[in-house]
Design goal:
CATH class of the domain at 235-368: Mainly Beta
Distance between the termini: 23 Å
Strand order of the largest sheet: 13-20-19-15-17
Number of helices: 1
CATH topology of the domain at 235-368: Immunoglobulin-like
Number of strands: 20
CATH superfamily of the domain at 235-368: Immunoglobulins
Radius of gyration: 22 Å
Largest sheet: 5 strands, mixed
């Protein structure tokens, strides 16, 4: 794919959110809940069970569940804890949080909390330093939403029996128009989905209108107003059928446009990102210098010059519900080029917003289609 244009689309996304939407699909028709926990990690928080074909390894064997919220912002709303080990810094040290309790650091790939607290930052519930939180997902149900894995190993626990989907899960939620538009079992007549709110009845936003019934399989597609705003050249990711995830490398260019006789010959910077509205673990492998082999945490850019940078965006099937190729799952995250001598501020220029761009992802999960 050619280098995508990364566009700041906050206003466009706001317009899309403001438009009247249909009842909201939570499980693709013909599948069960893909995030259903089949095996959890048990009291020690470490996954010991290998997922069977069709299920997804939510935690690597020998590790805790990856990318759990670990550190939250304290009452002063300033980030003070610096990620350690393989933990992931979600908001830069010294930066302001939108609110107290905002996620600041997650546990990274090994699922173990390795970041000491600083200032008035706090650990999320169930988190303690040096340990993985107990009873978190080890194996989840995957593309069809049906458990394939068992029995559990070590102190792991079987949560969902082999051959079953999780019963009575939300298939359709009430949309912002406050009216139930969806008739249960409109995809599979005679299915066992349950109509929880009569069609035309009033409902509150995110109230369940239809659930999946005893068999746990969605047999209903959401109905009602449904507008899709198209955007110019978003970063598109397609999860192939039979695959648990898909990854795309996003290329960026950072230019040193510093002016004046006192400007140094080079300026060193780092690449940072926020998770934005995307699921945890979407943004990985930030590389400040994509030309030099390996991942570079920082890079130097000569005055008037530029450098190629990159990151990877990964979409997991359990985070995406697709019921039409014309209606993508969309989320956004921000990427910033931060001058080291002004960090955590991006730089001291008149328009610091030029250092940050919003990446718009559009994801389709072909396992659902």
């Amino acid at each position: 794919m050619s280098t995508p244009r990364l566009l700041a689309l906050a206003c466009l996304v706001a317009l899309a959110a403001a438009a009247a939407r249909a009842d909201e699909q939570q499980i693709a028709p013909g599948t069960g809940l893909q995030t259903s926990v089949v095996i959890n990690t048990g009291p020690d928080g470490i996954c010991n069970t290998t997922a069977a074909a069709g299920d997804i390894q939510a935690a690597d064997v020998g590790s805790g569940t990856r990318n759990r919220t670990e550190v939250r912002c304290g009452a002063d709303k300033i980030v003070q804890s610096a990620a350690a080990g393989d933990d992931v810094q979600l908001i830069a040290v010294g930066a302001a949080c939108k609110n107290a309790n905002a996620a600041v650091v997650d546990t990274g790939a090994n699922g173990i909390a390795e970041t000491p607290l600083a200032g008035d930052d706090t650990y999320a519930s169930g988190i303690s330093l040096g340990a993985a939180p107990s009873n978190t997902p080890c194996v989840i149900a995957g593309a069809d939403g049906i458990a394939q894995t068992g029995p559990p190993a070590g102190d792991d626990n079987q949560v969902l029996a082999v051959g079953l989907a999780q019963a009575n899960q939300d298939v359709v939620l009430c949309g912002p128009n406050g009216v139930a538009d969806t008739t249960a079992n409109n995809v599979v007549p005679g299915g066992d989905d349950v109509q929880l709110v009569p069609v035309g009845g009033g409902c509150s936003t995110n109230q369940a209108v239809v659930d999946s019934g005893a068999n746990g399989i969605a047999e209903t597609r959401a109905e009602g107003p449904d507008l899709v705003l198209s955007v110019a050249k978003p970063v598109k990711i397609s999860i192939p059928a039979g695959q648990a995830f898909a990854t795309k490398t996003i290329k960026l260019t950072v230019t040193n446009v510093e002016f004046g006789a006192s400007a140094p010959a080079t300026r060193t910077y780092k690449l940072t990102s926020t998770s934005g509205s995307c699921p945890g673990g979407t943004v990985t492998e930030l590389d400040a210098d994509a030309v030099t082999p390996g991942l570079q945490a920082t890079a130097s850019i000569p005055v008037g010059g530029h450098i190629k940078a990159s990151l990877k965006a990964t979409a997991h099937l359990e985070d995406v519900t697709s019921f039409s190729t014309r209606i993508p799952f969309r989320c956004t995250f921000d990427v910033s080029a931060v001058a080291l001598d002004t960090a955590p501020d991006v730089d001291d220029a008149a328009n610091a917003d030029n250092n940050t761009t919003t990446v718009d992802l559009e994801v389709t999960d072909k396992n659902d289609l």
